[in-house]
Model the fold of this input.
Amino acid sequence: MRNLFLYQLMLLTGFLAYAQSSQDQKALDQKVSQFLDQNRSEWRDMNVPYNDGKVLYDLIVKNNYTSALEIGTSTGHSTTWIAWALSKTGGKLITIDIDERRINIARENLKKAGLSEFVDFRRADAHALVKQLEGPFDFVFSDADKDWYRQYFIDIDPKLKVGGCFTAHNVRGSMRGIGEFLDHVRSQDNYETTIDRTSRSGISISYKRSESDP
Ligand SMILES: C[S@@+](CC[C@H](N)C(=O)[O-])C[C@H]1O[C@@H](n2cnc3c(N)ncnc32)[C@H](O)[C@@H]1O
Done:
């Protein structure tokens, strides 16, 4: 009898905790969604468009990614989408930008969206920091200096989990470095690279299928 009572109590506690956390997530969803809608046409610092942010969000949620890295925060539009997705998967994001003004605005924006707890902001030169970060990561978004994309990929590859993906923005353009980057990722036998069709500027998505042969 006593055991049955304890069992029922445990079930009830579990249910109440679940109900509370789904209510919290619902409130957060509303807050973020409102923030993104209100600011949809307000991003002025080379930020990704709304659609491209949604592409990143969907990738993370679909694959249940939890350890993300963003190179190029600017004022935090893509950061908001990535952090929102991570709020669903229980993950965390490290985001890097060299520009103090922009990354400070990004901090404020993420606070307004209610997503600060999911983001670790690093003001640094990503050329050096990406080499130092331990990882492992399962999702990477590269959106800083295009002529360094290839090098970012080379530095991150050993820290990217199998099943994870390396994404890069503006790959449809003719900016310096994009051709070299795409040639490089496409030449990796253990990666499968596609370009998202819905993004005007182009987001490449390179899934790591296995570790490379020694
Ligand atoms: C295209 S913007 C990023 C836009 C951002 N992903 C968004 O959608 O809101 C590129 C950013 O990369 C940063 N950046 C450029 N070179 C960098 C470097 N070597 N290290 C860190 N950040 C860099 C710039 O300061 C700029 O804010």
